């Protein structure tokens, strides 16, 4: 038995259930929020150390042997993603204590947050493709409700787009799962990979691969179906935005990594070529969208899209170094992007607005906040010695080695334009003088306890970015080992199904 | 039976996409409902249709005799129906709240968050 595989899913589910029991007790819900996410982080770390030591861990739910029951599988990529989920969950839970409005808390903010984390962790750990669909839906339903907390006009408009596109992606995913089952007669991902390799019908496999690509591409906000993201992410309460920005699209990216390394690795000349084009256009359209924006969180939302392009680029090049870069990029990006959204929340709390035109002079009044902003901002743009530099360096070097000069050029250009966007925020929010004719009501002053609760996660995530940047070796080794596992799907199949040599499909 | 199902599923998908392309948010939700039903029927059909052959193992044997219906897609469809029901009820409530707040049934008038 390996309880550490199931615990990262069970703890948030349990924490959510207990929060619901204490529906009327605000202090109890706040305590469970911190305790539950801390438990998630600790078990995730336990899982990662075990996987790192013993290799891929498998747990068959209910004792049903592998292809028949539902398996939970933790390989290095999955375990790393769960650790990142724990980090982001814990950071956002702390931040929420200081920032979430009382009315949102009474409408069930904390139970929904736990449910979302359970869905995300489940998606990272499941080894069954239909179970993946179920975890996606758990995550989606929680995110729908979190997105409209507060019921403002903009939230409604954003939520309709978010709900529609995500439901369409779920249906495409479901149809693809159904057709895949019709072809191979199994739902276990390892078993699917094992059986697909023996099938002759390449045309149908490519059709299915494209359906999965569209379904996960919508979830990951890849070109051309990313419009739901910048339309909705800036409308939610800021703690929710930060949670979404860090985790939700990355679940889509993770699913792409999983499916296109394990199952659909037969014709990379076709599928991965399309991914490559998608990656380039995603990077470009995201960064150009951001250049036109003058609202703090909208700029950041468009940058999520452009950064997704780099991760998919790592998958699309499909060389060992590119996959290392892709995994490294995901880890770096989750931390940095959440941090930037949290900082935008602090700025809004101090000045009462997200509009760049009405902001200004924060460097004079809060110089430490400016420094805390510069760390993730420059890391996002890829300045050495921060974490983003190594992430971009790996992906771009892989692009040059693979001879994909066009996409590599786009990646470099997008890095430059990202820097432009970050400098724009820096100049408008921190550097320029406070506009005299500010049309915003001054917000109530911030209590020091509230401020510390909001600052602690920002400082901690900033330290993570600095640490990864100054000491990239441990994360690089981890990314290299996970990429090694991704490129050798036989190890995954063997860990789940046992020795496949004896079996005949 | 399968060709008939295939045509029915195709018509459902077409109707769903047509409804989703309309500007009214109510029609959008109707489109989503048809879409999820089309997907459910499709999963049901992928396993092939076997008439009057429940997947039961006779006493004293380890496998059912002859061709039987595959029970797994039916379990999948059941799960998918429940999930779709939950999500679509949310969508219906969302559309109602959106109408109360925005006072518009027209997606073209919900562009504030796009620019």
UniProtKB/TrEMBL annotation, chain A:
Major subcellular site: membrane
Membrane-protein topology: Multi-pass membrane protein
Top-level taxon of origin: Bacteria
GO cellular component: a single term: plasma membrane
Pfam families: Proton_antipo_M
Domain NADH:quinone oxidoreductase/Mrp antiporter transmembrane: 128-416
Entry GO MF terms: NADH dehydrogenase (ubiquinone) activity
GO terms (BP aspect): ATP synthesis coupled electron transport
Transmembrane segments: 6-23, 30-48, 68-95, 107-126, 132-150, 162-184, 204-229, 236-257, 277-296, 308-331, 368-390, 402-423, 451-470
Localization: Cell membrane; Membrane
Entry keyword set: Cell membrane, Membrane, Transmembrane, Transmembrane helix
Family assignment from sequence similarity: Belongs to the CPA3 antiporters (TC 2.A.63) subunit D family.
The name this protein goes by in its record: Multisubunit sodium/proton antiporter, MrpD subunit
Protein's organism: Modicisalibacter ilicicola DSM 19980
Automatic annotation (TrEMBL), chain B:
GO terms for cellular component: plasma membrane
Pfam families: Oxidored_q2 (PF00420)
Gene3D superfamilies, A to Z: 1.10.287.3510
KW Cell membrane (keyword) present: yes
Location(s), subcellular: Cell membrane
Record keywords: Cell membrane, Membrane, Transmembrane, Transmembrane helix
Keyword Chloroplast listed: no
Coiled coil, from the record: none
Membrane topology: Multi-pass membrane protein
Transmembrane segments: 6-21, 28-52, 72-95
Family indicated by similarity: Belongs to the CPA3 antiporters (TC 2.A.63) subunit C family.
PANTHER family: ANTIPORTER SUBUNIT MNHC2-RELATED
The protein, known as: Multicomponent Na+:H+ antiporter subunit C
Source organism (scientific name): Modicisalibacter ilicicola DSM 19980
Lineage: Bacteria, Pseudomonadati, Pseudomonadota, Gammaproteobacteria, Oceanospirillales
């Amino acid at each position: 038995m390996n309880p550490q595989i199931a615990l990262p899913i069970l703890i948030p589910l349990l924490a959510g259930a207990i929060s619901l029991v204490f529906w009327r007790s605000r202090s109890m819900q706040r305590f469970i929020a911190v305790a539950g996410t801390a438990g998630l982080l600790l078990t995730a770390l336990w899982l990662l150390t075990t996987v790192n030591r013993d290799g891929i861990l498998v747990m068959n739910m209910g004792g049903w042997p592998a292809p028949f029951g539902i398996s939970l599988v933790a390989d290095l990529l999955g375990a790393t993603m769960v650790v990142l989920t724990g980090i982001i969950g814990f950071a956002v839970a702390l931040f929420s204590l200081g920032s979430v409005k009382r009315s949102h808390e009474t409408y069930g903010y904390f139970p929904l947050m736990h449910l979302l984390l359970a869905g995300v962790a489940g998606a990272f750990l499941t080894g069954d493709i239909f179970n993946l669909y179920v975890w996606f839906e758990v995550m989606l339903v929680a995110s729908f409700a979190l997105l409209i907390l507060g019921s403002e006009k903009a939230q409604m408009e954003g939520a309709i787009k978010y709900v529609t596109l995500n439901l369409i992606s779920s249906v495409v995913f479901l149809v693809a799962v159904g057709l895949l089952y019709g072809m191979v007669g199994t739902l276990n991902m390892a078993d699917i990979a094992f059986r697909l390799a023996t099938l002759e019908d390449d045309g149908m496999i490519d059709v299915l691969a494209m359906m999965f690509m569209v379904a996960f591409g919508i979830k990951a906000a890849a070109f051309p179906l990313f419009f739901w993201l910048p339309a909705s992410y800036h409308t939610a309460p800021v703690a929710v935005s930060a949670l979404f920005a860090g985790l939700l699209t990355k679940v889509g990216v993770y699913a792409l990594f999983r499916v296109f390394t394990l199952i659909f690795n037969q014709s990379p000349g076709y599928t991965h070529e399309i991914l490559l084009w998608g990656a380039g256009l995603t990077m470009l359209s995201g960064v150009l969208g951001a250049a036109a924006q003058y609202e703090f969180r909208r700029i950041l939302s468009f940058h999520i899209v452009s950064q997704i392009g780099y991760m998919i680029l790592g998958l699309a090049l499909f060389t060992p170094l590119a996959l290392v870069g892709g995994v490294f990029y995901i880890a770096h990006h989750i931390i940095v992007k959440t941090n930037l959204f949290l900082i935008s929340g602090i700025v809004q709390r101090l000045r009462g607005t997200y509009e760049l035109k009405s902001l200004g002079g924060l460097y004079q009044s809060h110089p430490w906040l400016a420094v805390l902003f510069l760390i993730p901002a420059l890391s996002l743009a890829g300045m050495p010695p921060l974490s983003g530099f190594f992430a971009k360096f790996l992906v771009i070097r892989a692009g040059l080695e693979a001879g994909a000069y066009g996409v590599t050029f786009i990646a470099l250009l997008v890095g430059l334009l990202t820097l432009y966007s970050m400098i724009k925020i820096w100049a408008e929010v921190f550097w320029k003088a406070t506009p005299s004719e500010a049309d915003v009501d001054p917000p109530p002053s911030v209590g020091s306890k509230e401020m510390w609760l909001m600052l602690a996660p920002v400082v901690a995530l900033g330290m993570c970015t600095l640490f990864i940047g100054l000491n990239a070796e441990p994360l690089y080794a981890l990314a290299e080992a996970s990429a090694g596992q991704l490129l050798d799907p036989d190890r995954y199949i063997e860990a789940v199904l046992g020795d496949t040599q004896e079996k005949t499909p | 039976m399968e060709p008939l199902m295939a045509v029915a599923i195709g018509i459902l998908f077409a109707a769903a996409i047509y409804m989703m392309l309309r500007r009214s948010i109510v029609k959008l939700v109707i489109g989503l409902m048809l879409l999820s039903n089309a997907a459910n029927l499709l999963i049901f059909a992928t396993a092939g249709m076997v008439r009057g052959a429940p997947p039961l193992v006779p006493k004293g044997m380890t496998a059912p005799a002859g061709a039987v219906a595959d029970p797994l897609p039916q379990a999948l469809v059941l799960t998918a129906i429940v999930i779709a029901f939950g999500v679509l009820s949310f969508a219906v409530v969302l559309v109602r709240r959106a109408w109360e707040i925005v006072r518009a049934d027209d997606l073209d008038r919900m562009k504030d968050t796009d620019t």
